[in-house]
Structures are given as structure tokens and as C-alpha cells.
Amino acid sequence: MTAELVRGQNHPLSQARLEIRISAGTPIVAAAALSDQNGRIHGVEWVAHPGAPTQPGLEVSRQAAADHRLAVDLDAMPETVHRVGVLLALPTGGAGPVRFGSVAAPFVAVTGLDGAEIASYTIHGLDAESAVVALELYRRQGGWKVRAVGQGYAGGLAELLCDQGLAQAQQLAGSVNEAVARGLARSVQAPPPRTAEGDRSRQAAAPALGPDQGGTAPQPGPVPPVSPYGGQTSGEPGQTAPQPPSCPGAAPDPSAVTQPSASASAPTAGGPIDYSHPRRRNSAPPPPPPAAPPAAPGQPARPVAGDATGWSMEERLYNQVWGMFEDLARTTAAYRSAVDFAESRMDKELEQVLSDPRSRIGGQGDAAREAARARYAQLVEQAREALDRDLVQLQAEADVVEPALPPAYARWDNPVWHAYRVPMEIPMALRLGDLHLPEAERIHIPMLVRLPLERGLWIDSGRTVSSDGSFADAHSLGRLAMETAVAHAARLLAVYPAGEFTVHVIDPAGSGAQPLAPLVRTGVLAAPPALGAAGVTDVLTRLTQRVDLVQMAVRGGAADALPPGFDTAQQLLIVNDFPHGFDDRAVNQLRYLADEGPAFGVHLMMVADREESSGYGPLLDPLWRSLLRLTPVADDHLADPWVGHAWTYEPSLVPPGSQVLHQVLAQVAAARTKYA
User: DSSP assignment, residue 428?
Assistant: First the structure.
């Protein structure tokens, strides 16, 4: 029976090998700190965090996520360790929340390897805190216990570590934030939040409720300026990220000193930011359409395309796709956990057999070993049967969902493109490829990202080993990367209304002329691809000036006072063959567009080999981390927001010999001419 703890309550632990499962509803950082009997951390090597995920008896997640699983082996703890603290912190430097009071209360559970809960704790009462000690495992009279702590810190992870006696708290907190930022480049965008009724994500994101709908009336207060392009500044309304404190004896952290900004403007008055989708209404969506006729007795229900909730079929399909993604992630995680448990049980049984000298030789020992292996095989077979049942249902759902997808969600080989017409409004999301796991090679989940793009894209043209183990030479891979970029750009042009999306291309050496031919011949580019250093300078200067102009207009509260004839369309810059033709000034402009551009309607798509750009040193590291890395060949580099599965990504490419790309772009060009 699970012990539901309250703050300060403890509970004995009867198992040494445990899992600590964390659910927060928003991406958070999970870490674990080892300390002595006085609760003091003796050094950075006593903390397991995303930058150093394994310590003796500990393993934590390698990135920020809404759900975490921490592995703990109490028998492997050094004798000097008397306490193990489970630490949670909100990521810094992003567009997410900066205090736990604005998110759902984190839930933490201590479980056995079989998933059975031993103790759980919901951390209530947090407000301005951005880091918290959730649980503490501690030694007591030769055994171990768990205590619910819930101690929060408004100063973040640095203040938390400093309070536990770590002199290098500032430096370690910086290392953790750096590791989390690196993980952003390999993360899949999080799906809509799950509902409380069940495990399946089949509901849209909860809209904000007004006072006439049972909600809380907005409290007046300062808010940061919001871009007309849908971007918003990071943090919570009226707040800035707290500066971490200095620990006694620690060297001052120069990054903690804030310089006044000449471009900063005073915040304007207003209510809290509504984080719900701008096209969603502030009321419950209609129920899903009627389900298919009931299945025969003993058979699973037949799936139906669009059986999720939403205001439109597009939104229902979007939520259904993310539900499928979550289902596949969780059923695979359950299978892998069951296999791990079977292996650990077999190892333990074999160890017990070998520990008895009488059973090391003779038939008794052989029989015990065979019995242990037989139990292992039985557990694995049961887990595989459960996985196969889930995969059959998911495959059936994928078979009915894929043909029903609109163009923005569909593959290029979907017949829906043959009936394509230029849309009148922007869709919710865009498909950038497919995702699948090794245990379910046949089930491909569409990788959907919300529009407008919140992050730039990096098409990696480096030497990548494809999922089948084959290699591609640098020339072929560079061309394939550019074809992938063109396919993505064509999708973006196709799903936006006429004249509301503009594409610029920088191709300094002209090496991408052949892959760029569909965009050039159909006339959908704003101008011919820029060549040479002069072309690089011209395009980057115009786009950085555009971002500056829109930024000043928004911050000055005059977003409607832009110059006559100003192009208000979303802008996409495709950069090929980087860093050829880029000097230091151009590199700085590129970084500026990557950081500031998305919030003001300018998006970046890099086609580059990171190794070739390593000559610039660490200057470009923040640029690569801010972009979503995609590959022109299948590669298992993306991770999900729950358990960190390594998903294999496959780009969405036009089938060889197909004319669908030219037909779609021709319609886009004709619509521009008509509505110009």
C-alpha cells in the first residue's frame, strides 16, 4: 500500500534498488545530492545532475523534462553518505515559468523496480521558489527511510546548493543550466498536457478561465511586451529571474552581475499572460465525434481518426497524434522497465545460488540456474506480449489517422497534396518528419511542431551514420541536407496564406543551386539566392534591421505604426554551406537572428556541418543549442519529454520522381500574384 506523505513525514524503505518518479506538468530539471549526516555536500562530485548524470548508486535524467525517472541503489552508496536529496529546479534562460507557484504542484513517488509505489508526495505550497528539495532518503538504525521535505528556494538551484554547504554552488548551477541548454537541441517539442482523468493525452490544453467561468480574476501588474508574431518574453508576468546568492568562500560569479540595458523599456500595465493557444476559445471544446460501432466481444475498440477533443478536426487530429506519441513512449518504457526488472531478478537469484558453496557444483546448482533463466524468459515473454497488444492497437490507429491528416500534417506521398489549395488561415502545426522506436519499427508517429516556429532549425550536413549503419560521403550528404531544407521550406510556404510567408536564401558558394531549383524556378523566393560575402552581408543586414524595427515598435507600444509597405509576413532565412562567406560580424548577426528573430517573425534554417564551423570556437555553441537539430537521413538523436527515449527521426522528403513539390509551389506563386 502506498504511503501518501505530507511535509515532514517519513516512511521506511524495505528495498535497496528503487526508482523515483517525478511528474511536474512542465519541463523541470531533476538532480540528486549526496550528503553526510549533517546534510552537507562535500563537493560537486557528490551531485548527480544532467551534466554528470551518474554517481555511485545514482542515475538521473540527462535533460529537462515534464516526467523523470531517477534510479537509486542504496546498497551502492558510499559509507560516508547518509542522505540522498532529490532536487527539482525550473530551467533558466528559456521562455518557461520562473517560479513553481505558476505551475501544477510537482508529484514525486518512490517505487520498486516493478513499478509498485512505496511512498508518494505532492509538493504543495510553493510560490516564488524556482528550486526545491522534494524528498530525502536517509540512513536510520542500519536501514533507510524516505522523508517528504518540500523546502523551496527563490534563488534557484544555486541558493539550494549553497544552503547545503556546497562552496561551488554558483559554478555547479551554471554547469547544470549549460547541460540543460545543450539538451534542448535534441528534444522533441512537448505535447499538450495530460488530463487528470486518465493516462491518455486526449484533451486540448486547458484554456484560461475568466471570473465569470469560475476562474480567478486577473490581478493588475506589469507584463513584458508581447510580439505581434506570437512570441513572448521569458519568465512570468512582472517578474525577472532571481539572481542566485553567493556562498561563503565561493568566488564571485561574473555572470550574475547585471548591466543596465539601453534598449530595455519599462513594462506596461496589464493582466497575466494567457498561455493558451490564440485560436482556442475560453470554454470547454465540444466532445469528440461519435466513435465507431463497438467491436466484437473480446476485441479492442476500432480506432477512429479525430477521436480526441478539439474545436476543429485539425485540432482533434493534432491532439490524437500527440496521444499516439505518448502512448508509444509509455508502453515502450513499461516494456523496457519490465525487461530490466527481469534481468535484475535473474542476477540476484544467480548471485544467491553462487553464494552458497554447496550449490556451486553438481546438479542442484545447474537446476537453480536453469530455473532463474526460465523465470527471466517468462517475464520477458509476458512483457513482450503486453507490448505487442499495445502495438497492434497503435498500428491500427496509425492506419486510420495517416490518411485523414491535412496537408500540414501529411507526408509528401499522401494523396491529400493532389487536392492542395492555398489555405486562408495558418494551421496549428507543421510536420517535419516521422519518429519511431526500435521496438516498433513499423509505427511511425508524425513529428508535429507548433506554428509559428518557436525555434530555428539546423539541418545537419555532417558525417552522420544512418539508422541502417550506412555512411554517406560529404558531397552526397550536403546535397541531401539541402534537399531536406527545401522540402521543409516548401511545406512552410504551402501552409501559410498567400503572401504571409517569405523565404530568403544565402548560398555563398552557389553549391545549393540544384536542390534550390524548385524554389527558384517557381518564383516563391523573395529574391534570388544571395551569393558571396557581399550577398551574405546584404541579407543579414536587412533582416537584423527588420528585427530591430519590429522590436522597437512592439516595446514602444506602437506595433501598428510600422512604415508603409512594411512586409509583415513571417520571414525564413535558409543558410547553406555555413561558415563559408561569413566573417565575424556576419556570425554575430546570425546569432542575433537565432536569439531574437523568432519572437519578431524572423526564423532561421541552417544547413551546416558543425565540425566545419568549429574554427569559430565556443562562439557558436549557443547558436547550435538554440536550434532544433534535424538530419537528412534517419538518425536516433531526439528524446521525448517523459522518459528520454532515443527516438529515430526520419525527414519528410519528396518521393523520387514526384512532381508534387513543383505543383504545390506553382500554386503558391500563382496565389501570391493574384493577391498581390
Answer: S
Q: What is the pLDDT of residue 630?
A: 93
End-to-end C-alpha distance for the chain, whole angstroms: 68
| 348 CB neighbour count, 10 Å cutoff | 12
Is a pLDDT exceeding 80 seen at residue 283? no
- Give pLDDT tens digits for 97-111: 889 988 888 999 999
Extract the C-alpha cell encoding 661: 513539390
* pLDDT value of position 294: 59
C-alpha to C-alpha distances, 597 to 265, 435, 540, 572, 649, nearest whole angstrom: 18, 28, 12, 10, 26
Q: Where are the alpha helices (DSSP H) in 283-362?
A: 313-355
Instruction: Please provide the DSSP assignment of 620-640 as one string.
Output: GHHHHHHEEEE-SS-EEEEE-
Rounded Cα gap, residues 93 and 149, in angstroms:
27
Tell me which residue of 182, 151, 155 sits closest to 241, measured CA to CA: 155
Beta partners for residue 133, in sequence order? 87, 151
User: What's the mean pLDDT in 573-595?
Assistant: 91
Cell numbers found for residue 581: 562567406
Look at residues 576, 470, 587 and name the one whose alpha carbon lies nearest to residue 540: 587
**Tens-digit pLDDT profile for residues 522-578:** 999 989 999 999 999 999 999 999 999 998 888 887 777 778 778 889 999 999 988
Whole-angstrom distance, CA of residue 41 vs CA of residue 63: 22
Name every residue whose Cβ is closer than 8 Å to that of residue 389 and which is 6 or more positions away in sequence.
300
User: How many whole angstroms separate alpha carbon 135 and alpha carbon 110?
Assistant: 9
> How far apart, in whole angstroms, are the C-alpha atoms of residue 482 and residue 609?
12
Residue 445 near residue 614, CB atoms below 8 Å = no
Beta strands, E only, 205-300: 221-223, 268-270
Residue found by looking up cell 532561421 in the block:
604
In the structure grid, which three cell numbers stand for residue 74, read together? 542504496
> pTM to 2 decimals?
0.65
More confident: 277 or 633: 633
Task: In whole angstroms, give the CA distance from residue 422 to residue 662.
Answer: 14
How far are the Cα atoms of 102, 179, 187 from residue 173, in angstroms, in the given order?
22, 10, 21
3 state SS for 633-666:
CCEEEEECCCCCCEEEEEECCCCCCCCHHHHHHH
104-141 pLDDT tens trace: 889 999 998 877 899 999 998 899 999 999 999 999 88
590 pLDDT higher than 60: yes
Strand order in the sheet with 635-639: 440-450, 429-437, 646-651, 635-639
Phi (first) and psi of residue 152, to 5 degrees: -100, 160
Q: C-alpha distances in angstroms, 4 versus 86, 107, 109, 123, 147? A: 17, 11, 9, 11, 11
Identify which of 330, 303, 328 has the alpha carbon closest to the alpha carbon of residue 317. 303
Find out whether 488 and 408 touch, Cβ atoms under 8 Å.
Answer: no
